[in-house]
Amino acid sequence: MIIKKDYRYKINRFLAYTLLIFLVFTTLFPLYIMLSTSIKAQGNILPTWKSLIPDKVTLQNYVDVWKSSNFNRYFLNSVIVTISVTILNIILDSIVAFALSRKKFKGANLILMIILGTMMIPPQVLMIPLFILIKRLGMYNTYWALILPFAVQGFGIFLMKQYFDGLPISLDEAAKIDGASDINILFRILMPISRPAIAVLGINTFLTTWNSFLYPLIFTNTDNMRTLPIGIAYFNTLQGVDYVHLMAGSSIATIPVIIVFLAFQKQIISGLVGGAVKE
């Protein structure tokens, strides 16, 4: 009986590892194709098994991408917009979540339901109203048009509120006895111990904003205000697709995403483990 159980355990473990290896392969293989294509010479890009390993390796494609098509300006715009939107979301979403979680007032549940309702609206529905509003406010083709409409989002408010609800109210009461204001309670007590939720919110906002294509395309009309996803799309020409430079540009655009994920990975994992024993 013990032998049968041990045999089943080994089979289940083998199947589990096989499945995990397959998932890792299917996840990393497209990334490898992107990187290998980005270092190929222009004439060696045919999608065959022999071309999986480049014959001639060159980094000139990255140099060409960075110097051509105003790519460095696209990269700078994406950095400015993404960092601004991420910081504003962390601060403003936390303030709204603090009010809904800690302050008891009439209409709080209604406000929360309205916020949750905004998450159910497809972004395509808001394109025309936002475009008209931005044009009338004189913010079209500026950083304000790419930042302010996304400075507060329902997902972040809901995430931070749920996390604040799980923190003991005794923390607030002890701070008030010491004379702390609501701002001090939020920024000096609650937010430092809410780093797991802040990390999740920051990464989600960063990735969403960094990869955003539709709204930057609509809210800008000059080359100097384009962001990175739009700049990468310019490598698709009427004569065809410039694969090597397209993959080089995509590789450059992927680097900040990987850096941010690796930087916050430990905080997310440790925060989730710490949150499991939170009172």
Task: Please characterize this protein's 3D structure.
- This protein has a two-stranded antiparallel ribbon.
- Helix 4 packs across helix 7.
- A hairpin with a 2-residue loop joins strand 1 and strand 2 (240-241).
- The protein has helices at residues 2-38, 60-67, 71-102, 108-118, 127-136, 143-147, 154-165, 170-177, 182-190, 195-210, 214-219, 228-233, 243-275; strands at residues 236-237, 240-241.
- 24% of the residues are buried.
- It is 69% helix and 1% strand.
- The longest helix is centred in the first third of the chain and has 37 residues, at 2-38.
- The chain has 279 residues and is mainly α.
Strand order, main sheet: write it out. 1-2
The level of helicity is 55-70%
Compute the number of helices. Answer: 13
Number of strands: 2
Structural class: mainly alpha
Low-confidence stretches: 275-279
What is the averaged pLDDT score? 84
Order of SSEs, N→C? Answer: HHHHHHHHHHHHEEH
Shape: globular
Q: Per DSSP, what share of the residues sits in E-state strands of 2 or more residues?
A: under 5%
Main sheet overview: 2 strands, antiparallel
**Alpha-carbon distance between the termini?**
43 Å
Radius of gyration: 24 Å
